[in-house]
What we know:
The structure is a homodimer.
Chain A: H1 13-26, E1 35-36, H2 38-45, H3 49-61, E2 66-69, E3 72-74, H4 80-101, H5 107-125, H6 129-144, H7 150-169, H8 171-175, H9 179-192, H10 196-219
Chain A binds a DNA duplex through helix 3.
Amino acid sequence: MSALAPIDRDKSLGAHVYDRLKRALMSGAFQPGQKLTVRSVAEDLQVSVTPAREGLNRLIDQGALEMPSAKTILVPVLTVAALKEVATIRRSLEGTAAELATANFGPSDIANLLSLQAELESAMNSGDYRRVLDRNESFHFGVYEKCGMPRLVGLIEAQWLRVGPSLNMLYPEFAVSRRGVSNHMRVLEGLQKRDAQAVRAAFEHDIDDGYATLSAALGKT
Amino acid sequence: MSALAPIDRDKSLGAHVYDRLKRALMSGAFQPGQKLTVRSVAEDLQVSVTPAREGLNRLIDQGALEMPSAKTILVPVLTVAALKEVATIRRSLEGTAAELATANFGPSDIANLLSLQAELESAMNSGDYRRVLDRNESFHFGVYEKCGMPRLVGLIEAQWLRVGPSLNMLYPEFAVSRRGVSNHMRVLEGLQKRDAQAVRAAFEHDIDDGYATLSAALGKT
DNA sequence: TGAAAATTTTTGTTGCATCAAATAACATCC
DNA sequence: GGATGTTATTTGATGCAACAAAAATTTTCA
């Protein structure tokens, strides 16, 4: 667990632990199946066990970590069934967020997305898969956040957190899939035409493609 | 907070606290706006502050409780904006769960729902609003749980928990609305015909009706 | 009388020792 | 050798005292 560094203390330590673990999870610092312990996290982050346990429990609550038995905390290994369920939830939630966000998009917002997409493609061309994943995330949430429903966006984040670790582990196979590019293009077109249904459809398609790719990669494990 | 009684100790105390608070919230034991404290919950449930705090924080995490400042925990007062957001999320999630559940329904499952609905209507006729709410909840989750996606059902539960306290406060005005009956009827018809889209539509309609009623009642506060 | 300041009380957070249970390591036996 | 029983270690949970900050209360003063 030395993939973590000490944190600075201003607000709640438990919240800090949660944030740091979340980022570590999304950036692929932990392997699926890896065991975490309250004490090791506490030591790495230089806090006592109480806030460490709080951060871990929050992640367990939202399904970003697993506790198969009373004394073991694991980074989840994504099963095909779990992936399918997350994909189903994501389709509902992200489709809705995207649909609602469309009306709130102005030219400058679209310009921001365009530059994000450009960065994504350049990262893809240079084989920088980690940056591909990062820009992809920014693109998606750049749209969702404009729906003006923070609780909805929070739920979506929780779903991403469940797939994050496995996604990172498989990212060369995943990020190399170029179908995502055309889906994002259709998002941008829909946004420009203010066609909410088209935007929703593009995101749903993107999620379906990602699900298929990940599902196939998972089967080979 | 004397609306709570001591709990028995077998599994995790924090989990128990969470369960008890959840039930208390859904059954209307707390008023929206009411202040909760770690110590009072700990005392009522006869546990130390650590598991009490854990249970409270879990509820805060999923939005069933609020923490407007660093030292105050509140039962949320539902704003119109929050209600609208919850209704949007519920439409997505519950619509999807209902749609997916349809294929898994057999005759005995439908019979169970029918008797639940009969109990609901008899409770409504006798003016037992609390029982109306209870049977309504059982009806909804009786369908959703058959979709075979526990994570999805968990997300739905979290949404109900957000509306629960305010729902209970207003339940005479809310439960008296008879539009729910015809929506449930359409659910049952759709289930019998195995028409997933009809079932989804019926639930979405039910949620919309509930939103409208609650929204109106909320405005009068 | 009423607003501002000072004081007391309340409150969530944190660190840590302790506990019981689960896990791991090891030895034993057939 | 492999299964089984035994011991040692690790681990999450819990209770509790101490702390700093926020709230509530009281006092002060114009």
